Amino acid sequence: MLYDALRFLINIVFGLLVYAVLLRFLMQWLRAPFRNPLGQAVSALTDWAVKPVRRVVPGYRGYDWASLLLAWLLQALWLAALMTMTGGAVSGTLAGLVAVLAVVELVKATLWIIIIAVFLQALLSWVAPDGPLAGVLNALTFRVLTPVRRVVPPLGGALDLSPLIVIVLAQLVLMLPVAWLE
């Protein structure tokens, strides 16, 4: 029972941090505005960890390498913590496996962020198209929706199927290549 509670807390803390730092990286890379509730929450959750790493790992060519490195390190620590809880010691070989698995988990997390952002953007486009999250969601989804919109234009000029297609494709990537890498 104590084991389950500890595992739950580790998953919550590390999950929140990994997704927040990864979202920060994506928002900066895709030039999403930070002057909104989501951007401010991401900054508040991650500033304490990202700013010290930035002194050592500066940004380069529009990428916030400090955030990406921190997301990878947090993901690796998360996996190592879960492995040691199950009784495994993190040796040299296992550390290499943890490092590779952390990359796979970050790819999964990125795909989930895309799926959620596309879903929220599609939902909010009907309910509150000019809401405070519209700019962030547009920036996060523009690069994945635009190529699909070129191939599949809106039906009847009004029904845009591109969000559905992107979500299905992202789910397929999660099911096939990413699951195979695990």
Task: Write up this protein.
By secondary structure, the chain is mainly alpha-helical. The protein has one domain. Helix content is 79%, strand content 0%. The protein has 6 helices and no strands. It has helices spanning 2-29, 37-56, 65-85, 92-127, 134-151, 162-181. The radius of gyration is 18 Å and the shape is globular. It starts with a helix and ends with a helix.
Question: Can you give me a brief rundown of this structure?
Answer:
The chain has 182 residues and is mainly α.
Mean pLDDT: 91
Broad shape = globular
Proportion in β-strands: under 5%
Q: Compute the gyration radius: what is it?
A: 18 Å
According to DSSP, the number of beta strands is: 0
Order of helices and strands: HHHHHH
Largest sheet: none
Domain module tally: 1
**What percent of the residues sit in helical stretches (DSSP H or I)?**
over 70%
Number of helices: 6
Low-confidence regions: none
What is the terminal separation in angstroms? 27 Å
Kindly name the structural category: mainly alpha
